[in-house]
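Task: encode each sequence below as structure tokens.

Item 1
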Amino acid sequence: MALNRIPIKFNMLRGRTVLAIKYEKGVLIVADKILVSPKGTEYHGKERIFKISEIIILGGSGDSADLQNIIDKIEELKFEHDRYGITLTPLMLSNWLTKQFYFHHTNGSTLHIDVIVGGLEAGEPFLAHIRHDGSAWEHTYTACDFYCDIVPGDVSYKNLVYEHIKAEINKLSSCSVEGKPSNLIRREEALTIIIDAAKHMSRRFKHSNEVYLLGECDIVDKNSCNIAIEELSC
């Protein structure tokens, strides 16, 4: 497969799996605070969930340097939008990231990261997954892990956590948002599922500490939301 031919940086400090769920009035994103070297050494205390604006939250997996670089470029993008009085939305950011990742990938300078973008879009919760090769999609739940996607044999664990989330969500009955039919679950249900998934990851990486970051975009009304990022002990 073409993805397996992407060269791995010999000195890459990588972040592992990021999980996300969209619920009836918001988005939850969870990730640990650990970077791992190619030799397996763990470096603790590195945050991989970011508040981009008052309506956008982002989580990233993969090379720490590439992730910080793209965050810096997003800040420049946001500055340009603010300069002209344009509000950067999650959909706009996702489209921009898709083009950036695709450009780098097709020019032989693939960014070694996958990202998840959440937030408030047109009064509704938004969740998108953008891969290092420029492919992207919107979904009600997702999991990204750059390293698992390109190394043969490592993809199974990320898929296992993803399938766990999928199964738990499918067990729940549909709910409604302001009287409109919806298949989105309630916040309490989403929180339970994502914390349980984080516990699965904690048991998998048994040498890691058990502190995760939980990022949330909780919609207040059609034009505003509360974004909070806090530590989560599993």
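Item 2
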Amino acid sequence: MKSIYAAVVLAVVLVHLTEAEDVQCPSCPPGYNLQCVKSVACESDADCAAGSVCVDGSCLLGQCESDADCPSGYECTDNLQCVESTGCKTSKDCASGFVCVEGSCVKGSCADDTDCPPGYECKGLECVPAGCKTSLDCAPGFVCVGGSCVAGECVSDSDCAPGYTCSDDRQCIESEGCTSSTDCASGFVCVDGSCVEGSCVDNTDCPPGYECKGLECVPAGCKTSLDCPGGFVCVGGSCVAGECVSDSDCAPGYKCSDDRQCIKSEGECGNNADCLHGYICNPRRLECEPGNCGNDADCPEKYVCNTNKERCFPNPCKWNRDCPPLYVCQSANQCRPGKYKPV
């Protein structure tokens, strides 16, 4: 009889607790949880009976432990019951797929731009590609058209790989051919109806002084240096880099060096200031010659720095006197150790 009475009392207590706003009893006997129900240890809700949840390692009567356990628009109360939500402060207070707008959880993915990934902005509670200046401002899979990011992989043919063109729906598709080089991407020309790598098809594609050979613009054949572009001179019927072929191509007081550069001529320097970079005035011959150096960068082209003497020497050499002390100029026009010592 006593056991039946105790069960009835316990049932009344449990019903009262589930309806009460405060789940914590003022004082419970040892071995009972905060709802004054005999404690049942648990690790997850699966360890608890139906109508109970696992909270801090103990099964308690209720439906939820946090708002995430409740349906959208509901929140978990202190007595572990899911009730209709009365509002929100931030989107974190809302269920997944909902955001907080003016204190209410509404369906959406964003409330402002800060909720969206880079390259997107919040419009109509959804993250959409943001405004742009170039396609680099857009997310992958989008291109910039009229200041807006739209789905696609190209805006023009130049955005596609060689042999492909940009379709009306902004996709790179295999090209059916070409009629002129303007149909090809940059760095390609039209040859026999196909885009191939190159800079020219004929001489008309090249700047003055150049001709088309092997689909590339190269300095043209010449009769005089006037036939060559700037920075080139005519040597043996071909345009080669340089500013002179002979002394007559240089200004008065200058002569043409072996590397086709105009340098101060003999007898025309009084001090180092009269010579070009990398040259000094020989006080005995009054001639500009490769001068003092700390490294090869201080020397003219085709000269190297002998750091022991801090002087520039030709490389390759022409005469033994071109080489440092105890070096000689060998047949390969290289300075190598030898017994000759220049005066």
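Check on item 2: Helices lie at 2-19. Residues 1-24 have pLDDT under 50 and may be disordered.
End of task.
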